[in-house]
């Protein structure tokens, strides 16, 4: 049996974070949950990931967009899903191949963004 994909999930709202991690586990993903982009960026130095789901508005010095760009630089082609309830970035603000979803999002859209060959796109909820 293949090893489950390791997904870095970054969300500062703990209940949303835990809910998404649980839902991703039910879909066969192994998640690494974090509440800040700064902490996630440090984790990138120690852990190889297979995908990223990040909120844009996060505490600390890095935003979710900063983190997404850094992940794309370190691992080109990495599936990246950026979410937000308050920001709607333009396609050119996202790293290549990233998907944006407005909150509230559907789990199916998160999974599709992590598994389907994606091009940079912005999806309205």
UniProtKB/TrEMBL annotation:
Keywords: Phosphoprotein. The keyword ATP-binding does not apply. SUPFAM superfamilies: CheY-like (SSF52172). Residues 6-118 form the Response regulatory domain. The modification 4-aspartylphosphate is found at residue 55. PROSITE patterns: RESPONSE_REGULATORY (PS50110). PANTHER family: STRESS RESPONSE REGULATOR PROTEIN 1 (PTHR44591), TWO-COMPONENT RESPONSE REGULATOR (PTHR44591:SF21). This is Response regulator. It comes from Devosia albogilva.
